[in-house]
Amino acid sequence: MRKTDELIEENNHKRELLNVENEKVYEDLLLYLRTDLRIDEHAGEEILMDLLDHLVEAQEDGKSAKELFGESPQKYADELIENLPSQKRRNVFLFSASQVLGLTGWFAASFGMISLIVSFFRPVDNSIALGSLLLMLLSVMLVAFVGVSVIFKIIRSSVFQAEKKKWQAYVKAGLYGAAAFACVVLIAWLFQDFGPVIKLEWWLFLLIGLVLLAFSKLMYKWSE
Amino acid sequence: MALRSQLLKGVLDACVMAVVEEQPVYGYELSQKLQAIGLPDISDGTIYPVLLRLQKNGFIRGEMRPSASGPNRKYYFLTDQGQAELEQIAAEWLEIAKPVSQLLKRGGGYEKDR
């Protein structure tokens, strides 16, 4: 497991020690920091752990999260972000590559499995148009990238707002997500048979998929 | 405003480095020590942006270690670079501290010394 993931898991356990009020303030801060994609993830998790440890001890001494983070938690969080190191390019590359390989791997592996299952009931056509496949993967990645940035932005703008505003933001983010998904489906439907067609056995798809997934896991592990 | 916060940052940095120099500490310990010294306003959340800034500049470094109470904590150590920086800030501060505090008492005491 990556060191960063260990920190995240430890954070999940330790947060249970907070009382309701402190937990709310802390989780807002956590969401705000984690959805900032500019900062180094590991450094971000380290400071979140520091703050959580501090808050747990302060709580035992009868202090509140408000006393720790001041009157404006957002201002405080911005001050932290300003002083955190930015995400290393190496990590951005490894993370993106692992996502792309993972996505392609899942696609190939499920295609293989599905055609195996379907083949029990009727003959299947295992041919696939490479152009359509490529276009589909590209659009998924583009939509995922734009979608995540937009959705994170909406969430970040509402983190420290009242509950009602938060819900509005989540609904808005959900609609964006749905629209993005619809775009991918539309593209897939419009360009069904595009480019050269290859025909492979189901187990070959499965094998390719598993290899890609293994590479994806490896790259994720290399990122910090 | 810029100069004011600049000045404050320098003083904060020096205070935190001076505590870390004495003994490596983790966040909560640091805030307790600052409070005991008589600086309660910079003791709580304020220390974390300072710790991040000092780390970014290479003046301190953090290391996970088991704490006295048991669980692992991130302890902060002063680096050689931080040592040099602290000495410089301390020298500058000591040079201005006395005349400035005398001036800011505003009893006109500084005129008598002329």
TrEMBL record, chain B:
Protein name listed in UniProt: PadR family transcriptional regulator
PANTHER family per UniProt: PADR-FAMILY TRANSCRIPTIONAL REGULATOR, TRANSCRIPTIONAL REGULATOR RV3488
Signal peptide annotation: none
Pfam families in UniProt: PadR
Superkingdom of this protein's organism: Bacteria
InterPro entries recorded: Metal_resp_DNA-bind_regulator, Tscrpt_reg_PadR_N, WH-like_DNA-bd_sf, WH_DNA-bd_sf
Protein source organism: Planococcus wigleyi
Domain Transcription regulator PadR N-terminal: 16-88
